[in-house]
Write a structure and sequence with these properties.
This protein folds into two domains: about 140 residues, Diaminopimelate Epimerase, Chain A, domain 1; about 50 residues. Helices cover about 55% and strands about 10% of the residues. The protein has seven helices and four strands. A four-stranded mixed β-sheet has the order 3-2-1-4, sandwiched between helices. Helix 1 runs parallel beside helix 7 and helix 2 runs antiparallel to helix 3. The protein starts with 7 loop residues before the first helix and ends with a strand.
């Protein structure tokens, strides 16, 4: 997983620094473990596991003591909740693509405000929001960038996030496009935001 890669912080910082050397845009990278709690999905999995266990106990050809039904049902419910909450692939499958994308968009919009990406002099901030559990990157650009690059162009520039190398390569591609659309100022670019990624649990 990308969050456990010890090279993540330094690699992203270097990629952002190199990109910003060629463009007046300001990149802010936020890396989040997940964009939604998905507690409702964990609860649904737990209830499903408990119901399945109860049905098995009641109709299995093997005879179980009736007095133990509540105990085994509770154990199955707890185990189902534990498996669902600790298994990103299962949560992704339960959430579905539409919900995952919505959760990431909403979290990215909130991060854009929380990290003050809008506060650059030329309104040329670009948030690169990486959501690990959902395996999705969302780009949120300020109005100075949106005047030049369309939403469709930004969508094509979304980095991948399967590995650190994939993310860094995507940041380099984004930086190259921004260098053409918003080249660096003649006197040099002031660094208006920290190049290091903001890490969130």
């Amino acid at each position: 997983m990308i969050l456990t890669d010890p090279t993540l912080g330094a690699a992203v910082s270097d990629a952002v620094r190199e990109a910003e050397a060629r463009t007046s845009a300001e990149l802010v990278v936020v890396i989040s473990g997940r964009s939604g709690s998905y507690r409702d999905l964990v609860l649904s999995a737990a209830m499903g596991g408990g119901f399945f266990a109860l049905c098995f106990l009641a109709w299995s050809p093997v005879v179980f003591w009736g007095s133990l039904f509540p105990l085994w049902t509770a154990v199955a419910t707890a185990l189902s909740a534990l498996v669902a909450s600790s298994s990103p692939p299962l949560l992704r499958a339960l959430a579905g693509r539409t919900r995952r994308e919505r959760q990431v968009r909403e979290a990215a919009a909130a991060a854009f405000s929380a990290e003050a990406v809008y506060a650059t002099r030329g309104r040329t901030g670009v948030l690169v929001y990486v959501s690990v559990l959902e395996c999705r990157v969302e780009l949120v650009a300020d109005q100075g960038v949106n005047r030049i690059l369309s939403v469709a162009e930004l969508e094509e520039l979304r980095p991948g996030c399967g590995t650190v190398l994939e993310l860094v390569a995507g940041l380099a591609k984004l930086g190259a496009r921004l260098a053409v659309a918003l080249p660096a100022e003649a006197g040099g670019n002031p660094d208006e935001a920290d190049d290091a990624p903001r890490m969130r649990g």
